[in-house]
Amino acid sequence: MSIIITGATGKLGSLIIEQLLRKVSADQIIAGVRHPQSERAQCYIKQGIDVRICDYDQPETLHQAFDGVSKLLLISSSNPDDTVRLRQHAHVIEAAKKCNIEHLLYTSFAFLGDGIDSTSLHHLHLATEHAILTTGLPYTFLRNALYIDFVGILGLDAAIAKGELSIYPGDWKFNVVTRHDLAVGIATILSESCHENKTYELTAPRPWTFEELAIALSKLTGKSISLRQDTQIQNWIYGFLAKINTSSTSVDLERFIGGPVTPLTDSIKPFIGSHLPKST
Ligand SMILES: NC(=O)c1ccc[n+]([C@@H]2O[C@H](COP(=O)([O-])OP(=O)(O)OC[C@H]3O[C@@H](n4cnc5c(N)ncnc54)[C@H](OP(=O)(O)O)[C@@H]3O)[C@@H](O)[C@H]2O)c1
């Protein structure tokens, strides 16, 4: 069995390969990269991992990269334009079909098509899922929750300095996850052979609230941090959050991790590093 991971130099791709190395031998893993001379790609080569050029904008590289491969994990493109991303994904899907890949897995987005979707992000992921279905290839849709990184846009430094976290009013709930947890779960799925034609919602099993975030911040920093609802707040993230489903949950991710997801306090530590007491 050989498993190719596209976007292998990215943050999620690197973590998936790190986790996959615990489950299968290096010679079963192929890192699909844009730049084989990059530090990360060279590191893979030293680990005994085959590195192949895999550029979503250059279909010929994809045909070469997928030759003889059994499983393909398409990590969604990071291009900021969803129309471009759709074309890039189509290139990968066409190449997967031509190369007769045995199993095509795709990192989609959690809880698509539940009625509140109106962003181009939802259309992109649904269109990619549909394009994969047109191939007739066995597939798995890994519908990833929003990454915990969004907390970095909430003004945590200011909240800690002021002792007050300002948020836009609403019944906010967050099923968000760390990339590390996703990587552990996805590596399990990639290393097993019972996931064909399945869709998994890789979210936290219980959503947390802004009240819980303020408590976590207080606990980590040792400072009292209260919550304030502010209708005047200017932050694009709330418009985005309102259009995606961050409240529904699933136990899929914990099932594949084989234990609990990373607790909120640990998940947010990287985003408040300079405020943590030395012993934390
Ligand atoms: N669920 C969420 O909250 C969330 C948030 C942000 C993004 N995402 C999606 O999840 C994906 C993985 O996240 P991440 O944090 O690992 O992103 P990342 O660190 O930015 O990595 C993106 C990867 O995609 C590769 N890539 C970009 N354009 C490409 C192209 N034209 N052809 C081939 N490879 C290309 C990059 O290659 P280089 O190293 O050569 O640049 C990199 O390896 C993102 O790409 C995005 O679609 C999800």
TrEMBL record:
Q: What is this protein called?
A: NAD(P)-dependent oxidoreductase
Sorted alphabetically, which PANTHER family does this protein's record hold?
A: NMRA-LIKE DOMAIN-CONTAINING PROTEIN, QUINONE OXIDOREDUCTASE 2
Please report the stretch or stretches of sequence annotated as the NmrA-like domain.
3-227
Q: Which Pfam families match?
A: NmrA
Q: What is the lineage of its organism?
A: Bacteria, Bacillati, Bacillota, Bacilli, Bacillales
Give the species: Paenibacillus segetis
**Family annotation (InterPro entries):** NAD(P)-bd_dom_sf, NmrA-like, NmrA-type_oxidoreductase
